[in-house]
């Protein structure tokens, strides 16, 4: 919530507005593909569709992971899934887990992926339709665990930059509103309500009948986010940033309780968002290099 977060975070919109941002050609997937190609050049071996069901450790030292009921031994394990999920589902009971699991979760998102027949020349790559009562919106999210009747709507249209990403005469819309993390709400009802309010807001703003222009639709809510990414309760950024401690003292990229276990990603230091997630991975890599600089490097 901007009404609770430290003022230092106002540097983020300053940088975005005054320094600008980068757009990856081909969409966000191009970052993933570039990292994958780089890893292959570094002789990294990937094993897909092999979910880790447990992280093994003994006497405060990492032993490896369990994959498909098989033990894979390792001196170092890095978890880039939500640290909450890691503690709750992969490690078990250690003193740190209780503290981590009690922390307030960040907000989540309700996203509509719409294929729009037609064009909106008044819109660009990034577009925000703000709520008339911004404070009430965040009180609804963090206090009432629901959404307001007038949500702020973010619309991203990458076909404005790369027309080939949508059919001729059409646009690809990523439409998002902030919602609370999943704590058992009726998400079917929330999705229907939000969809109606978003469409009404766009219709009133641009004088159109948006419903008639929607040709394809895919929806992503906190439940699906948790299922697809293992983000605990479907939160986007791990812990909330509603205090100085939460914003700047996030879980570190290691744990003192298990030697050889490291963490990276949006739920640990330095925070959420793609640039910080990449920075988190770099920090973790440097920590491992420092801690194991005299050991022979092996990989699984």
Secondary-structure topology with pairs:
Blueprint: H1 11-19, H2 29-41, E1 52-58, E2 61-67, E3 70-73, E4 77-79, H3 83-91, H4 95-101, E5 108-117, E6 126-129, H5 134-142, E7 153-156, E8 170-179, H6 187-206, E9 214-220, H7 222-229, H8 244-248, E10 261-263, H9 274-291
Parallel strand pairs: 4-10
Antiparallel strand pairs: 1-2, 2-3, 5-8, 5-9, 6-7, 7-8
Record the strand order, biggest sheet: 6-7-8-5-9
Overall morphology? globular
**Gyration radius, rounded:** 21 Å
Termini distance? 41 Å
CATH homologous superfamily caption of the largest domain: FAD/NAD(P)-binding domain
Count of alpha/pi helices? 9
Largest sheet: 5 strands, antiparallel
The name of the CATH topology of the largest domain is: FAD/NAD(P)-binding domain
Number of domains: 2
Number of beta-strand segments: 10
Look at the structure and give the mean pLDDT.
Answer: 91
Question: What is the helix fraction of residues, given as a range?
Answer: 25-40%
Structural class: alpha+beta
Oligomer: single chain
Q: Give me the strand/helix succession.
A: HHEEEEHHEEHEEHEHHEH
Look at the structure and give the CATH class of the largest domain: Alpha Beta
Poorly predicted ranges: none
Per CATH, the architecture of the largest domain is 3-Layer(bba) Sandwich
Strand content: 15-25%
């Amino acid at each position: 919530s901007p009404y609770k977060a430290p003022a230092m975070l106002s540097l983020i919109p300053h940088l975005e507005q005054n320094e600008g941002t980068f757009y990856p050609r081909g969409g966000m997937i191009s970052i993933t593909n570039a990292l994958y190609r780089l890893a292959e050049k570094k002789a990294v071996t990937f094993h897909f569709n092999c979910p880790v069901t447990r992280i093994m450790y003994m006497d405060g030292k990492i032993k490896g992971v369990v994959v498909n009921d098989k033990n894979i031994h390792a001196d170092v394990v890095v978890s880039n899934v939500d640290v909450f999920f890691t503690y709750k589902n992969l490690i078990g009971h250690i003193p740190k887990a209780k503290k981590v699991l009690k922390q307030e979760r960040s907000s989540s998102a309700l996203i509509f992926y719409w294929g729009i027949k037609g064009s909106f020349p008044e819109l660009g790559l990034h577009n925000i339709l703000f709520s008339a009562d911004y404070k009430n919106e965040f009180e609804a999210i963090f206090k009432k665990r629901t959404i307001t009747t007038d949500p702020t709507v973010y619309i991203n249209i990458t076909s404005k930059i790369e027309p080939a990403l949508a059919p001729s005469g059409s646009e690809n819309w990523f439409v998002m509103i902030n919602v609370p993390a999943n704590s058992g709400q009726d998400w079917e009802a929330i999705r229907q309500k939000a969809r109606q309010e978003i469409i009404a807001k766009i219709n009133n703003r641009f004088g159109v009948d948006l419903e008639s222009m929607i040709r394809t639709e895919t929806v992503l809510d906190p439940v699906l986010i948790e299922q697809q990414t293992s983000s605990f309760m479907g939160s986007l950024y791990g812990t909330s940033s509603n205090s100085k401690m939460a914003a700047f003292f996030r879980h570190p990229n290691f744990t003192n309780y298990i030697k050889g276990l490291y963490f990276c990603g949006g739920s640990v230091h330095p925070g959420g968002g793609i640039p910080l997630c990449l920075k988190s991975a770099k920090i973790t890599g440097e920590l491992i290099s420092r801690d194991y600089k005299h050991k022979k490097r092996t990989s699984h």
